[in-house]
Amino acid sequence: MHSPRRSTVSVASTAAIASTFALAAALTGAPLAEAHPGHEDHAGPGDAAGVAQRSPLVQKVRDATARFVDINVAMHEGWKPATPCVSGPTGGAMGVHFVLPSRVTDGQLNASEPEALIYEPGRDGSMRLVGVEFIVIADDWAKAHPGGGAPSVDGHLTNYVGAPNRYGLPAFHELHVWAWEGNPQGSFADWNTQVSCERQRAD
Q1: pLDDT for the residue 91
Q2: N or C: which end of the chain has fewer CB within 10 A?
């Protein structure tokens, strides 16, 4: 499968993790430089398109986020950098998260409206879309769904992350969907062994 093209953007402003995703718009640091399409190819053997043919949720996410393969489009539509590149504790990575702050605090989950886009950084400053994350703050969900059960996305149960946590967030529910990069661990696993932070630039 031909991997999605990368888009280039400076990620210097993601030098510190946001205290909450809801405050991502107020992140400190240098402003983002003007983005432009990159040309670095990805060597990974991901087959997200093949997975999408078997998973309705993966396909739905691909349809909803196809325009964000170009990170310029995401930034133009208000997506904000929320984390540096997040590596796994024993291998793999999550990548760099961009969030739409208004979605994080609405207490809702919609399969066509993920709260975070996940990009893998390239050596040349490019960013390759690899997946999304659905995020809802636990208290916001409980208030919006009194007496309801654990949140799910199109029948896929979310994972609960208590507080305190490495992200500095209050307790929240989350679900990753690796819609743009195949994952040997599964399309809904937290960490993807085909994604790496090793090419993250320090500048």
Answers
A1: 85
A2: C
